[in-house]
Write a structure and sequence with these properties.
- 2 copies of one chain form a homodimer.
- By secondary structure, chain A is mainly alpha-helical.
- Chain A has one domain: Orthogonal Bundle (Arc Repressor Mutant, subunit A), CATH 1.10.10.10.
- Chain A is globular, with a radius of gyration of 18 Å.
- Chain A starts with a helix and ends in a 16-residue tail after the last helix.
- About 7% of the residues of chain A have low confidence.
- The interface between A and B is large, with 43 and 43 residues.
- Chain A binds a DNA duplex through helix 3.
DNA sequence: ACATCATAAGACCTCAATGTCCTTTTGTCA
DNA sequence: TGACAAAAGGACATTGAGGTCTTATGATGT
């Protein structure tokens, strides 16, 4: 019952990117450093997100990654599924034919309901919600005398 | 975001055992066969459940496994945690010290809430609920002309 | 054209989850 | 007490998640 590291990393990178206007460029290197994420693994996650057009990738010397659309248009379910594939909760749920007990199994029914509630939750929230949450956290931290983020480079590159 | 096979198998075995009075004995062999579970893996899961006193194991020629207490006294959270350890959802949640972003991370807050809702769900339901669900399924199946369970041995051994 | 530096792509490694197999220990019964 | 059949326990194989590394490819400035 764990969120995979891939989704975790993807969300952290997306939160960093959401703090700047859509279209702002971010280098893999900076995202990894500022998010405390393994660079060479993050690149695979971002590739999945690029396939789903949640982010755009730009090659070349002034390349980088940018958000593909506004944070409010990116549901957490879309992030989960573009990285991990369908949210299954129990392996037999999305493919009833794979289990000979399908349709006569209490566990299947119970976890089907749990899955629906999780999916509803992920679908009801967008990256914007996480961004708002982050803004609230940052504000309360800044009011006290907390240290600055590790790298000023988190801000997007100016073309 | 998946329930592990171990928990899946454990629940299936517990549902089989719950259909007989507490104390009834079940051989590993029968549980595995009737539940369609890998015998040699199931034994490890049952050992975890035995450590948590959710089941009792009995050695010797007329040994087997029995429920440790009434299905209504076994919450699904207990089953999950005795097999898999704490339900973490996100690896850093139960141990804030493990993550340098703890307390300043929107993902942590969001998944903390998701975790609470999952835990509440697992805590609010017991094996008895799954049993009731199973009874309902069995009833509706028997009213139609569905095949019998694979093995009559699913019924407990009469000591 | 070419050097530079970004992502793209894929090989490769490690480890935990999953699953199998075999030997040992233990309780029952003749 | 000895044979039998059950769980206990540990070694080992397989698979996928998580992570690293190297080479290819493309955009930019000179």
């Amino acid at each position: 019952m764990q969120v995979t590291r891939a989704v975790d990393y993807g969300l952290r990178a997306l939160i960093l990117m959401s703090r700047q206007p859509v279209g702002a460029r971010f280098f893999l290197q900076d995202l990894a450093q500022d998010g405390g994420l393994p660079r060479n693994y993050l690149v695979k996650v971002l590739k999945s997100l690029a396939c789903a057009e949640i982010v755009r990738s730009h090659r070349g010397i002034k390349g980088g990654f940018s958000l593909g659309r506004a944070p409010r248009e990116i549901s957490l379910r879309q992030v989960f599924e573009s990285i991990d594939g369908p949210v299954t909760v129990m392996h037999c749920l999305p493919d009833p034919g794979s289990c000979s007990y399908s349709g006569k199994c209490a566990a299947e029914v119970f976890f089907g309901q749990l899955r629906q509630s999780i999916l509803a939750n992920l679908e009801a929230h967008t990256l914007q919600d996480l961004l708002d949450l982050q803004a609230k956290i940052d504000c309360s931290k800044n009011c006290a005398c907390h240290p600055e983020p590790a790298h000023a480079e988190t801000t997007a590159r100016k073309g």
